[in-house]
């Protein structure tokens, strides 16, 4: 089963509207395959209908997808919120060079001089 199929996303969105009635789902990312067959991980943005602020939360869930007799997809079961490799969005890596083109030195070398007493005195 290809979890990135649009019909899988529609089945998950319909399931969420039916089951999570006190939640407003704002955005879905494309579902990704899990190591087990017929299981898909999906990330979505949501907010609570009861909350007065418009703060958005992110949710990562694993859905088990079934196929009906008419070849349409249906959610067979849903897992709890989770994290993992497939749960988080892949962010682009930051450029590791400075604007001058040189590499960043994240750990500067420590300089130790034996002639300098830099110990903290005990009081």
UniProtKB/TrEMBL annotation:
Region of interest called Disordered, as start-end residue ranges on this chain: 98-123
Pfam families cross-referenced by the UniProt entry: DUF7074
Recorded superkingdom: Eukaryota
Domain (DUF7074): residue spans on this chain: 1-83
Classification via PANTHER family: O-FUCOSYLTRANSFERASE FAMILY PROTEIN, OS07G0633600 PROTEIN
Protein name per UniProt: DUF7074 domain-containing protein
Native species: Nelumbo nucifera
